[in-house]
Amino acid sequence: MVSVRRAWPLAVLLLAGCGEDEAPPPVPRLTLAPVAVAELPGWSLDDHGEALPAWRRSCTRLDAQPEDRALGPEGIGGIVAAWRPVCAAVAALADGGGLKAIVEREMAAYRVDGGAEGVFTGYYEPELTGARQQGGAYQVPLYRVPPDHVSVDLGNFDPKLKGRRIVGRIEGGRLEPYYPRRAIDGGALAGRGAELLWLDDALDAFVLSVQGSGRVRLPDGSWVRVGFAGHNGHKYNSVGRALIERGELEPGQATWGGIRAWLMANPERAAEIFAVNARYIFYRELEGDGPVGAIGVTLTPGRSLAVDPAFVPLGVPLWLDAEHPLPNAGRLQRLMLAQDTGGAIKGPVRGDVFWGTGEAALRIAGRMKSRGTYYLLLPKSVVLPQFVAELPAEGG
User: Fold this and answer.
1) pLDDT at residue 315, as a whole number
2) Bridge partner list, 127
3) Closest to 151 in 3D by CA, of 190, 171, 172, 177
4) Is residue 206 helix, strand or coil?
5) How far is the C-alpha of 253 from the C-alpha of 276, rounded, in Å?
6) Residue 391: left (phi > 0), alpha (psi -120 to 50), or beta?
7) Can you tell me the distance from the alpha carbon of 81 to that of 68, in angstroms, rounded to the nearest whole number?
8) pLDDT higher at 17 or 229
9) pLDDT of residue 15
10) Mapping DSSP to helix (H, G, I), strand (E, B) and coil, where does residue 338 land?
11) Residue 65 DSSP SS3
């Protein structure tokens, strides 16, 4: 979905564009508070073994990396070598029954604090209808990365910008911003051979662009899975927030169900509202039994979490403690793996839970906007880097 950024370029990004007389906005700061694993809220109630497939997938990525590679911003997750014994123990499990004991024996827990309680949303893999050729009901294109799409690593020009990228296109010998959504929806890429598939519904195409991946049922009854391949470099903006600000929806109505109902009642304004989110997603076909997250592994429903890699290392386990999106369901307290990122997932305590595929997953993901926090789980051998402010232990 988005490339990994280190913590300090975030400050560069926040300060960019400030006038000389303007005070710079505060830069979010990550602090960690140690807490005993056994004292994590709801720890004894989870079926920890359900996270075993996700954890093993994370370990396949870690095992392929050099032992001295640092994980996360400024090495907050330690080096790969520190994770080797944990991954070996996880790989040796016959089933998920022993995962809880491994965490209690091998891991240390830290409450992540960004200065305020965090927000957790949900996402899912939609199921859509489409075709490989334009015709009949299939008139809405999904584009692969176009040939004029240019991605620039700014670290090649300034080491201080390592990990920062910009996207554009070459016009008249100059790098210009890439077309925003309004232009692409208006036909800026038509006829260039970049069409991957054709859908039968513009709203479904927009939902797909927000979720990042989906399954498309073709006319012969077969399915093709598509996922994120790139974007146009423009900022993500929330359609739900725009509808609230314009007085079209009340804050409690800005769920996917509420947004869909408003768009169906106001189809003549759909293009106007879609254009609020200038970011446009390009796709590729995927193999496998599920969508692929930013670390390159298949996501596990209910156990994979999208995070901001400027603060949280990708691939590591986390303990989530948040409001459950379903009524009368108590707290959402479970073992998760940080395996994805997202354009709207920004900040020290911000997450997006992957709930799975289809309408059942939508019913949960579409309702989720939960307050809560998470705890970073690291091997006991990891020494926190100096830039992390460590708070006293909880209860101490």
Assistant:
1) 96
2) 215
3) 177
4) helix
5) 18
6) beta
7) 6
8) 229
9) 23
10) strand
11) coil
Beta carbons of 203 and 129 less than 8 angstroms apart: no
How many CB atoms are closer than 10 A to CB 101? 12
**CA–CA distance from 313 to each of 82, 123, 197, 319, 340 (Å)?**
14, 20, 34, 14, 10
Please work out, in degrees rounded to the nearest 5, the angle formed at the alpha carbon of residue 178 by the alpha carbons of 176 and 182.
130
Question: What SS3 state is found at 240?
Answer: helix
Long-range contacts of range 6-10, CB-CB < 8 Å, 24 or more positions apart? 6/73, 6/74, 6/162, 6/163, 6/310, 7/73, 7/74, 7/310, 7/311, 7/387, 8/73, 8/74, 8/160, 9/160, 9/161, 9/162, 9/163, 9/164, 9/310, 10/310
- Indicate if the pLDDT at residue 16 is higher than 80: no
Tokens 């509420």 sit at which residue?
258
CA pair distance 55, 304, nearest whole angstrom: 9
- Region for 167 from its dihedrals, namely left if φ exceeds 0, alpha if ψ lies in -120 to 50, beta otherwise: beta
Quick one: which of 279, 275, 270, 281 has its CA closest to 143? 281
Structure token pair of residue 93: 């499990």
**How confident is residue 23, by pLDDT bands cut at 50, 70 and 90?**
very low
Regarding beta strands 213-217 and 127-131, do their DSSP bridges make them parallel or antiparallel, or are they unpaired? parallel
